[in-house]
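Changelog-adjacent note: as of this version, every example in the card shows the full chain rather than a window. The one below runs 334 residues end to end.
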Amino acid sequence: MLRVAIVGSGFGLYGHLPAFNSITNCKVIAICGKKTERLINYCKSIGLKKIYTDWQEMLTIENLDAIAIAVNPFSQYKIAKEAIEKGINVFAEKPLAVNVSQAKELLELAKKNKITHTIDFIFPEIDLWRKAKHLVDDKALGELKHISVNWDFLSFDIKNKVSSWKTSVREGGGALSFYFSHTLYYLEYFVGEISDIKSIFSYSKESINGGETGVDLLIRFKNGVRACAQLNCDSHGLNRHQLIFQCERGTIILENEGAIAEGFTIKIYHEKKIEKLLSRNITMKKNEDERVKIIKKLAIKFVDACIHNKQHVPSFREGVRVQELIEKIRAEQI
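Full-length structure tokens:
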């Protein structure tokens, strides 16, 4: 039985905790975070008694096999580093750290201490995303020529004018790092290694700490495929996540509206015919975040890898790669 602790009273509480707590071969024995009424009540409802406010104290006192971290990137770096040095396996959020140097340090330390490490890039765990990848890899409509990404929504921090690390580039935030890190990962998941990127950012007065709210990218992959990708987390009204795969003999569109992980469809256009595939609705508990069931898929793989002393993807290696792309884009933006 893997002994796991959660660090974080935000997404750690409503994302990681219910995901890990529902896995049969692991046991969540502690959580570290602010002792909010929400945290105290939820922990009470599931019988979790050990609540810490000091993560170093928790790592020292508890006999842990693994931790799941959901805090700001700089704090994650510090927590993960100390956990790894203690031989504790790490399930991390994205982005992995504030910069490439920190991310590489965590990866090298993890390899040295032979711990299992995972980073929470959730989208390729969704069934229809995997179906889309099979269609592309199997060349169902011929060779892939071009991919487009359109991701528009209104983020919580922008909508509510919240001052947090998520709108601060210096602290590891901004739309590129916090949201588009997902896109940088899944573009290489679908297509392969990115060789060149041109970018332009846009900004909003609603971003309290000045981080960019929009990102537009022109991308070339090593295999010759081209892409354009845009994200806007200051979108009032339009809420969509759309990927368009233009192939030799048709087009595949993977998209949803008004949700994060639910409601994706695939539309396949070829020879004047249209096929449509629908995602199965995720069965959720009352008031449960829609991402929990997807995180659980990654968490199950992480727990299994920990038990069998293995490694799996996405790992810190992919976290470092995304961090490298983030820094390249920031350094060369138009």
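Structural remarks: The chain has a mean pLDDT of 95.
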